[in-house]
């Protein structure tokens, strides 16, 4: 049992050995085979430099910059570097935060507090915006208006304009979006916001540090930074493509007046007057010093070279997907993401009733709780934008987790335009490809004059993710959303350049294995139970039973397809409740009377002290992988407490 407070102290060598043993169960943070949550430049000596810099400032406290001017100097240097990279000027200011989620929360706070007269301030975002915006809306009691994206997976300027009202305090968009890696039309959106007198935030947490270098390398990407009139704030994470250790993001404002409402000040108590630019008061200087050391060591020329390696790796991965029968590119690989889906031109030979992964649910109507017309009392769940599309379109919206509280958490009904469609680099690009009826033989034309029948079984994406993980490739499955199918997300870093040649043959073998295995096997009793569940019915006892029924009780999380398939058919509110319950099951201290959830590695139940590969259900692990990572944005199951695929933290 791992005991944090032993009766007597333990020698340092033993402690370090124990920590190393725990880490050995984690997914590999280096080596270019983990496509989520970690960012590896594959530069010799960089980790050691960052560790030493971290140690120098680990005990410096960011609470008072007059007491620790070294930290103030480092923060100003980092903000200045980000401002120059993103076309700021002499008036650009910013703050160093702990991660993208904090940066986004503060951007929303600054906008909200700039309009104190509003009873219900509103935030307008496209449906592909990071889930951290929903978290910000929930925490800050700002109403969230989620607008469907276009067929190209990008924010629709006209639709966004229609949702801006007199009580809108902020419009936000992505550069790029986490789930698909595409850049929203920032110039058009910023112009609309400026015309309406509304702040406009660019969420560049994910790719903001690499996009300027990709553009310098010739990538056809739109302007997205302060060079665009109307952009009032930008967030960019340094622990992503700046390759700094975890825990450093930058929130920039075009000028100081825009930043002031971000601060919190309080003098109404006997102690010191509290003045905080960010959410935390006490902050270690360690991450900030490590980030500064990383930037100075790599330098501008070094980042350009790392971006070139990343770009080449993306092209190679995209080609591998395009050349592998059974999968297809779902989004254009224009930045640092490869997003793939099952190729629905391959006929699925399974009986229709066995496939629960798609919007057309074969359960009796009364058992289907996935649609906006909820028969529960209205107060039961107000977190999801009411979608007025037909039931068969599936209203599972990952970004609709705004708030369950009254008026301030209100979400205006989603627009009635068709939901975003798949972007497919084949004929009729941008169209949603209909899934063939089970057992049918569908003609496919890959080349002019070449029409042939395809009878291969469709590939179950969640099974494919497991098969890739079994071959050492750890990806991030993403749940179906509206009319978008389930996808697999690959975040590509410079380290992938050294391993990318191995991916294509492994992908082909994994696809063949997934076809041979067929769809994930969900016990019928669990499928039936899930169809009748509502979020209010989820209890710790029910979660423990589901975990046992899905084979998670013994701590083996190497095969997560059944879990992900079950979650994929659950409506968002139920999925959230299930994942919250499961995470709560994991996050328990060890039972002093015996092993169980939260026990040591190898214990009988899953837990933080168990295999670091907890489940695919945790807040940071890829669902297909055998273990969750601590920093991930979307749960290993494809979603999680910070899910949407794009945890910015």
TrEMBL record:
InterPro entries reported for this sequence: GrpII_AminoAcid_Decarb, PyrdxlP-dep_de-COase, PyrdxlP-dep_Trfase, PyrdxlP-dep_Trfase_major, PyrdxlP-dep_Trfase_small
UniProt keywords, alphabetically: Lyase, Pyridoxal phosphate
Presence of the UniProt keyword Lyase in the record: yes
Cofactor: pyridoxal 5'-phosphate
Modified residues (N6-(pyridoxal phosphate)lysine): 240
Biased composition range(s): Low complexity: 388-433, 611-643
Domain of life: Bacteria
A GO MF label: pyridoxal phosphate binding
Region (Disordered): 346-451, 588-649
A biological process term (GO) from this entry: carboxylic acid metabolic process
Family recorded in the similarity comment: Belongs to the group II decarboxylase family. Sphingosine-1-phosphate lyase subfamily.
Protein name: Glutamate/tyrosine decarboxylase-like PLP-dependent enzyme
């Amino acid at each position: 049992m791992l005991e944090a407070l032993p009766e007597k102290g333990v020698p340092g060598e033993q402690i370090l050995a124990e920590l190393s043993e725990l880490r050995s169960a984690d997914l590999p943070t280096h080596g270019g085979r983990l496509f989520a949550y970690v960012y590896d430049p594959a530069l010799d000596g960089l980790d050691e430099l960052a560790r030493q810099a971290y140690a120098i400032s680990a005990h410096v406290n960011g609470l008072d910059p007059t007491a620790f001017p070294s930290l103030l100097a480092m923060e100003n240097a980092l903000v200045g570097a980000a401002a120059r990279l993103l076309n700021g000027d002499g008036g650009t200011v910013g703050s160093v935060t702990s991660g993208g989620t904090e940066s986004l929360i503060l951007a929303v706070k600054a906008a909200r507090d700039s309009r104190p007269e509003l009873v219900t301030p509103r935030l307008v975002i496209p449906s592909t915006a990071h889930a951290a915006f929903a978290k910000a809306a929930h925490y800050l009691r700002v109403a969230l208006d989620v607008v469907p994206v276009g067929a190209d997976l990008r924010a629709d300027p006209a639709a966004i304009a229609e949702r801006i009202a007199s009580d809108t305090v902020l419009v936000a968009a992505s550069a790029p979006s986490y789930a698909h890696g595409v850049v929203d039309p920032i110039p058009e959106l910023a112009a609309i916001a400026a015309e309406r007198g509304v702040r406009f935030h660019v969420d560049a947490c994910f790719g903001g540090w690499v996009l300027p270098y990709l553009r310098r390398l010739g990538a056809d990407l739109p302007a997205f930074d302060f060079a665009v009139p109307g952009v009032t704030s930008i967030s960019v994470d340094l622990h992503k493509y700046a390759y700094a250790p975890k825990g450093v993001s930058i929130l920039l404002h075009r000028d100081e007046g825009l930043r002031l409402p971000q601060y919190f000040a309080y003098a109404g108590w006997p102690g010191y007057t509290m003045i905080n630019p960010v959410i935390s008061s006490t902050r270690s200087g360690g991450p900030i010093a490590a980030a500064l050391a990383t930037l100075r060591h790599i330098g501008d020329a070094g980042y350009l070279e790392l971006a070139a390696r990343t770009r080449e790796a993306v092209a190679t991965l995209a080609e591998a997907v395009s050349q592998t029968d059974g999968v297809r590119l779902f989004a254009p690989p224009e930045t640092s993401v490869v997003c793939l889906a099952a190729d629905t031109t391959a006929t699925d030979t399974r009986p229709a009733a066995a496939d629960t992964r798609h919007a057309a649910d074969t359960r009796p109507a009364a058992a289907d709780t996935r649609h906006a017309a909820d028969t529960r009392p209205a107060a039961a769940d107000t977190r999801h934008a009411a979608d007025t599309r037909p039931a068969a379109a599936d209203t599972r919206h990952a970004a609709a987790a705004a708030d369950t509280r009254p008026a301030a958490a209100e979400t205006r009904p989603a627009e009635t335009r068709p939901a975003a469609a798949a972007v497919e680099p084949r004929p009729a690009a941008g169209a949603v490809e209909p899934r063939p009826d089970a057992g049918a033989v569908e003609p496919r034309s890959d080349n002019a004059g070449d029409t042939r029948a395809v009878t291969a079984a469709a590939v179950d994406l969640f099974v494919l993710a497991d098969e890739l993980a079994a071959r050492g490739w750890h990806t991030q499955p993403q749940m179906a959303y509206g009319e978008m199918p389930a996808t697999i997300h690959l975040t590509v870093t410079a380290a992938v350049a050294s391993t990318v040649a191995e991916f294509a043959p492994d992908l082909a073998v994994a696809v063949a294995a997934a076809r041979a295995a067929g769809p994930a096997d969900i016990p019928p009793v669990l499928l039936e139970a899930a169809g009748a569940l509502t979020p209010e019915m989820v209890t710790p006892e029910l979660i423990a039973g589901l975990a046992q029924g899905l084979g998670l009780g013994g701590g083996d999380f190497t095969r997560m397809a059944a879990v992900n398939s079950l979650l994929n058919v659950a409506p968002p509110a139920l999925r959230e409740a299930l994942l919250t319950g499961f995470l709560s099951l994991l996050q328990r201290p060890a039972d002093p009377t015996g092993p169980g959830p939260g026990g040591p590695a190898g214990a009988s139940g899953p837990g933080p002290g168990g295999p670091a590969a907890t489940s695919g259900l945790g807040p940071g692990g890829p669902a297909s992988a055998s273990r969750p990572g601590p920093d991930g944005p979307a749960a290993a199951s494809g979603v999680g407490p910070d899910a949407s695929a794009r945890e910015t933290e």
